[in-house]
Design brief:
By secondary structure, the chain is an alpha/beta fold. The protein has a domain of 158 residues: Isoleucyl-tRNA Synthetase, Domain 1 (Orthogonal Bundle). 46% of the residues lie in helices and 14% in strands. The protein contains 17 helices and 16 strands. Strands 1, 2, 3, 4, 8, 13 and 14 form a seven-stranded parallel sheet that branches. Strands 6-5-7-9 form a four-stranded antiparallel sheet. Strands 10-12-11 form a three-stranded antiparallel sheet. Strand 11 and strand 12 form a beta hairpin. Bound molecules: 5'-O-[(L-methionyl)-sulphamoyl]adenosine. The site of 5'-O-[(L-methionyl)-sulphamoyl]adenosine has 19 residues, from strand 2, helix 1, helix 7 and strand 13.
């Protein structure tokens, strides 16, 4: 299958099923969705996968605490995550759950293959074990004072016989792969952390847990007294979901947070695939972490943003817009309520919302609700000409920024154009032209209405991957039920007269009036 015809395959991390969806989960899905929508708009066939990581100790425990079976527990959490996807307008094509047979069968088949190839061996191991992280610890994991870092919770010493997968034989291959595929880890500066990890010899990875200690997992195909280590199980989701969709693999992007880059995604996963003779994914897109109001998000301290409640209060697209506008992909960001409201008011309500109101209002008052053709072509040196030139530059810049995944600066640039459009309207003051009986003013008024509505249409088209619902609404109130937009996306981004003759709605409230700052 050629590079061009292969669908663009993008995935999110699969979230742990041991809690409710939070802002970090919401962000990752929104970011991946913006990329997926952007690629679709560019004409590529896209396959977008998200899902849920349902096995492991924590799920088993949470289910026990609630007095339900682990499967029942997972089913109810899965519903919450699937509802979140719908609510946030996430355009995923598939949602994989690691308890599904289609996934378990693939995990078992891959394990068997590795076992048959002699890549897996059994050994007895004594050492420290963190139940919370479900991993064995090494001396180097200790704090300088000898204690164990808090993230490991209760650490116990155990001796256990388990199955191990040898990573070391692939270490040099992985180092070379990373060096010769500069796009493998994005942003590029994250490479350093991976290569540093690979400076030390890689230990064998323990891929089993005895069933008497952990029941809730996928039984090893070659020894059913053990279940599969959660990471070995979870990572395979990206591949198992493609079994019924030939031609998808390798993935173009695995979108993940920085906490799960090293070692699972940058070390275990490519080595597992290499050992199996399966190509590595093309790129790991690593995003940063959100803090909330300046500190770590935590339900217990109340420092928490619930994406569901937040969308209900301010609208899904306000949340999508803020997440993408505020965070530079790869860097950390803070979700401050105050900053959210500042952007909501200044950018969404008073800038974009205001342009929509003015466009509808002026067309209704002075053009019988029908968008007129401009009275003349924009002459050089006129404000109309300047705005059209501004648009051409904006479009080129924003497309380039979107391509580079710089959505936050792309949006900044696009909103500068919306600001310029509002300034243009003030300069031309159509409300004054409307009161004049001079035919030249009346002709200019037509041009102004055509110009402002065209600028709004173009901005909405370019904003589509980020706030699809709002953009569809803008098209509808401009009297062009996305129909005009059936043309290829890039072709819709040319300044012109696509709206001439369109019948606009009397009014629209996209972003209810500015919210009080808290
Ligand atoms: N189940 C594993 C992933 C397995 S992928 C084969 C996991 N789950 S998680 O629920 O803890 O996290 C899911 C994703 O959400 C991760 O990419 C993680 O980085 C991201 N986030 C969790 N909290 C976050 C923030 N506070 N901010 C941004 N993203 C964060 O890890």
């Amino acid at each position: 299958m050629s590079e061009q015809s292969k669908p663009f395959y993008i995935t999110t991390a699969i979230d742990y099923a041991n809690g409710s969806p939070h802002l970090g989960h919401a962000y990752e899905k929104v970011l991946s969705d913006v990329i997926a929508r952007h690629q679709r708009l560019l004409g590529r066939q896209v396959h977008f996968l998200t899902g849920l990581d349902e096995h492991g100790q924590k799920v088993q425990q949470s289910a026990r605490e609630q007095g339900v079976s682990p499967q029942q527990f997972c089913d109810s959490v899965a519903t919450q995550f699937q509802d979140l996807c719908r609510l946030l307008d996430i355009s995923n094509d598939d949602f994989i759950r690691t308890t599904e047979a289609r996934h378990q069968n693939v995990v078992r088949a891959l394990l068997q293959k590795l076992f048959d190839k002699g890549e897996i061996h059994k050994a007895s191991y004594s050492g420290f074990y963190s139940t919370r992280q479900e991993q064995f610890l090494l001396e180097k994991d200790r704090n300088p004072d000898g204690s164990w870092p808090e993230i490991y919770g209760n650490v116990t010493q155990i001796t256990e016989t388990n199955y191990f997968f040898r990573l070391a034989p692939y270490q040099q291959w992985l180092i070379d792969h990373i060096k010769t595929h500069p796009g493998f880890i994005f942003p590029r500066y994250r490479q350093k952390q991976v290569l540093e990890f690979l400076n030390e010899p890689l230990n064998d990875l323990c891929i089993s847990r005895p069933r008497e200690r952990l029941e809730w997992g996928i039984p090893l195909p070659f020894d059913e007294t053990y279940v599969t280590y959660v990471w070995f199980d979870a990572l395979v989701n990206y591949y198992s979901a493609t079994v019924s969709h030939p031609g998808l693999w390798p993935a173009d992007f695995h979108v993940i947070g920085k906490d799960i880059l090293v070692p699972p995604h940058a070390v275990y996963w490519p080595i597992m695939l290499k050992a199996l003779g399966i190509p590595a994914p093309k790129s790991l897109l690593v995003h940063g972490w959100w803090s909330v109001n300046g500190s770590k998000m935590s339900k217990t301290t109340g420092n928490y943003v619930d994406p569901v409640a937040f969308s209900a209060q301010y609208g899904v697209d306000a949340l999508r817009y803020f997440l993408v506008r505020e965070m530079s992909v790869g860097q950390d960001s803070d979700f401050s309520h105050q900053q959210f409201l500042a952007r909501y008011n200044a950018e969404l309500a008073n800038n974009l919302g205001n342009l929509v109101n003015r466009a509808l209002n002026m067309t209704n008052r002075f053009a019988g609700a029908t968008i007129p053709a401009p009275a003349s072509e924009p002459a050089p040196g006129t404000p109309e000409d300047a705005l059209a030139a501004n648009w051409n530059q904006t479009r080129d810049d924003v497309l380039r920024l979107y391509d580079a995944l710089q959505y936050h600066t792309g949006l900044e640039r696009l909103f500068a154009f919306i600001t310029a459009t509002n300034a243009y309207i003030e300069q031309r003051a159509p409300w004054k032209l409307g009161k004049s009986a001079d035919p030249a003013d009346q002709a200019l008024l037509q041009t102004v209405i055509a110009t402002m509505t065209e600028a709004l249409r173009l901005a909405a088209v370019l904003l589509t991957p980020v706030t699809p619902g709002t953009c569809a609404k803008i098209a509808t109130v401009l009297g062009v039920p996305w129909g005009v937009l059936h043309k290829p996306w890039l072709e819709q981004l040319h300044w012109g007269t696509a709206l001439t003759g369109a019948k606009v709605a009397p009014s629209a409230i996209l972003f209810p009036r500015p919210q009080p700052q808290k």
